[in-house]
Amino acid sequence: MTRKTLPRLRLYRTTWPRHALVLADTPRPTCPQCAGDGGTARDYGHPDTGEYDGTAWEPCPCWNENRRWVLLPLPRPRWWRGRNDYRNEPPF
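The structure corresponding to this sequence follows.
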């Protein structure tokens, strides 16, 4: 494998749906299409008035944002463990 075909990975911590360490793919920093941003944002207008109506995100083929692997599930933090006190109260 050459250096250009190796995946660009990053390690981060996630809290949803569970606490875990995750290894994820990142955009290619030298990509000529997206300049390392992972995609391009395109503003579009309303068809009748032409006023700003939103922004569309077009992902770049150099990056797959859904490519990620859970490496290590982590326990919940200690400060979160005692948060079940609200279940003893009646609903108002």
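Strands lie at 9-14, 20-25, 39-45, 52-59, 68-73.
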